[in-house]
Design goal:
By secondary structure, the protein is an alpha+beta fold. Helices cover 30% and strands 27% of the residues. It contains four helices and six strands, in the order E-E-H-H-E-E-E-H-E-H.
């Protein structure tokens, strides 16, 4: 599948969906998906205003990253939020896969794998050298999913300090 075409049609379990770049018009549905994701994680809580602000910052300035969505005829039911940065270790541009979610009603049907493959194809086509993500330590299903997609555990331990 090629990411040079903005509308890539996929078929899985008899459903036809599209992987597309998100637009600002998609913001309300994206916020709902991020709220779903945050409510399932130990480190975060849903915050509609913060999610809307963060998503808008990406959508309004594509040099910061991309948001790709899985869209059926009636709704957006999956998203991948990619942030771009530079790695001195890799000597080039890398992606931080910040948010990845498939709505619970659509899980287990292959849509997540198709979205990950789309992201990997995008990274290859744009000459990114690495994709890094954080998976919830307590969510083994998520970890296994990403391992099945070719992601490995790193020896680095994430640490953070909230400064706001």
């Amino acid at each position: 599948m090629s990411t040079t075409n903005a509308n890539v049609k996929l078929s899985c379990s008899g459903q036809v969906v599209r992987v597309q770049p998100a637009t600002i018009e998609d913001l309300p549905e994206l916020v709902q998906l991020v709220e779903e994701l945050m409510s399932a994680q130990a480190d975060f809580s849903p915050n509609t205003k913060a999610h809307e602000q963060g998503l808008s910052m990406i959508l309004e300035q594509p040099n910061r990253g991309r948001i790709f969505v899985l869209r059926s005829e009636s709704r957006i039911f999956g998203m991948a939020n990619l942030l771009f940065t530079i790695s001195t270790a890799m000597g080039g541009m890398v992606i931080l896969l910040e948010d990845f979610i498939i709505h619970p009603d659509y899980r287990g049907q292959g849509f997540g794998s198709q979205l990950v493959n789309y992201v990997i194809d995008f990274a290859k086509n744009k000459n990114f050298t690495r994709i890094t993500l954080l998976a919830d330590k307590l969510e083994e299903n998520s970890q296994k999913f990403f391992q099945n997609q070719g992601f490995d555990f790193a020896h680095m331990v994430p640490m953070r300090r909230v400064v706001s």
